[in-house]
Amino acid sequence: MIDYYASRKIIAQNGVPIHIIPYPLADNWYEVRIIFHGGAKFDPIGKEGTAHFFEHLPFRGTASYPSADAIRAVDREVFLDSLNAWTNMTQIVFNGIVRRSRETEAWGVFRELVSAPVFNPEEFERERSVVLQETHERVSSASAERMMKLSLRDLYGDHWLHRTSYACGWPDSVKAITLADLVEYRNNNFHTGNLEIVVVGDVKEADILEQVCRFASDIPAGERFAIPELHEPPLPQINRREISSSSDLGISGRKWSGVSVGRVFSAAWSGALTWFTGSMLTAFLKRKIRLEMSAAYGVSFERKHNGELCFMEIETKINPEMLLAVLKVFEDAFKSEAWLSEEARSSFEIEKRLKLERSKIYIPTPSKIADAAARILSTEGRILSDTEDREALEKVSFEDVVNFFECEFSPEKLYWYIVHP
User: Could you please report the per-residue DSSP string of 291-330?
Assistant: First the structure.
């Protein structure tokens, strides 16, 4: 069986870690992820979205490619239209496909994006309009923004994660960002101590060491990035917030009610354990709400890892006439006695078997491998192989899940967010 996440780590002369993951079907090409640890966590207060804004700006022009058109042209020619970047709470990542026949050119472009962006005031203002549009896609109205901010404060209290739900920030915070803020952010966070590189595909070790040394030659040295210390999760400021789509969100004509139950918990809990818990909750609620009650199309489960803390959320959209009945099903699902039944044990065994069987047949693309590897480096400090992942799954017992649920899902730790039409 091929282990698609089996990696080896080498260190360049300038101290930059490089994680090499071979991919059997790649022939003379590889995916690159250039990771700068930091992300939105280090945005100035009141200027949330600074890291994300900076990620956009190099694509407006660099010293050798002075316009957006020039960047687009080299993207098509050298990277086959794959050059891009993304930002989350803990990282800024530049990525692209590199053909070994164009390797030196490609790494030269990466070097330009990171070390030689043109901080042009006119291009800065043009890109602000693009970033604002991105925030408006996530925050539909001033009313919706207000409710999102209240919800974040409910969940996180004074922890820095209360400041924004997305790395792109808020419309008002993006409007407050100056060009000097982007320069300062780059100067403070773009150093070799924060830098790691992932390459997935057909990679020659000697060649990649040479390219990375040249790429990072203009990046200043800095203290080595460390995995954030684990924090005890805050308790919700309030346990239940009910709002109206029309009066609180400014949305009229909505025909459904929304139910969301969230929990912030420590990153010390294993990913396999939280996945099993979320999957079992989702399966139980789908069976009850969709199949038995026909009250909703589906139930979604999301787990976010922000380095220090994790957030798990179960949500659904339902027929308003059935809201009270659905809430009762949700409340029953979160009672500890529901997890001590033979039905719950059977559900766990089914979920575990399915997860392990899927892991044997799933063939990820190089792009998915590179993205997953990049993200886990900010939370685990290393890339977990498929073998390690399966071993972690195998070790999880039903008793572990019950213990996690009883520790983390008691009523005072849950946050209910209910939206009425």
Answer: IIT--EEEEEEEEEE-SSEEEEEEEEEE-GGGHHHHHHHH
pLDDT tens digit sequence for 256-284: 999 999 999 888 787 888 888 888 899 88
Give the model confidence (pLDDT) of 38-86 as tens digits. Answer: 999 999 999 999 999 999 999 999 999 999 999 999 999 999 999 999 9
The answer, as to whether pTM is greater than 0.90, is: yes
Pairing of β 415-420 and β 257-266: antiparallel
With contact defined as beta carbons under 8 Å apart, do 25 and 403 qualify?
Answer: no
Burial of 246 (0-12, 13-18, 19+ CB in 10 A): middle
Give the E-state strand segments of 211-356 in sequence order: 240-244, 257-266, 296-305, 309-318
- Total domain count, the chain: 2
Q: Are 315 and 286 in contact (CB under 8 A)?
A: no
A 10 A CB-CB count for 230 gives 13
Alpha-carbon torsion 223, 371, 29, 105, what sign? negative
Q: What proportion of the chain, given as a percentage, has pLDDT over 70?
A: 100
Look at residue 235 and tell me if it is in a domain.
no
> Which CATH number do you get for residue 50?
3.30.830.10
Query: Closest Cα partner for 257 from 330, 325, 321, 317?
Result: 317
Nearest-CA neighbor of 192 among 158, 216, 175?
216
State the pLDDT at residue 184. 97
Count of Cβ atoms closer than 10 Å to residue 169 Cβ: 30
Q: One-letter amino acid identity for 27? A: D
- Same domain for 270 and 200: no
Order the strands of the 17-22 sheet from edge to edge.
8-11, 17-22, 195-201, 29-37, 91-99, 84-87
Please give the backbone phi and psi of residue 37, each rounded to the nearest 5 degrees, phi first: -70, 140
pLDDT value, residue 200:
98
How many residues belong to the chain?
A: 421
364 band by pLDDT with thresholds 50, 70 and 90 = very high
Q: Would 17 be classed as within a structural domain?
A: yes
In the chain, what percentage of residues exceed pLDDT 90?
74
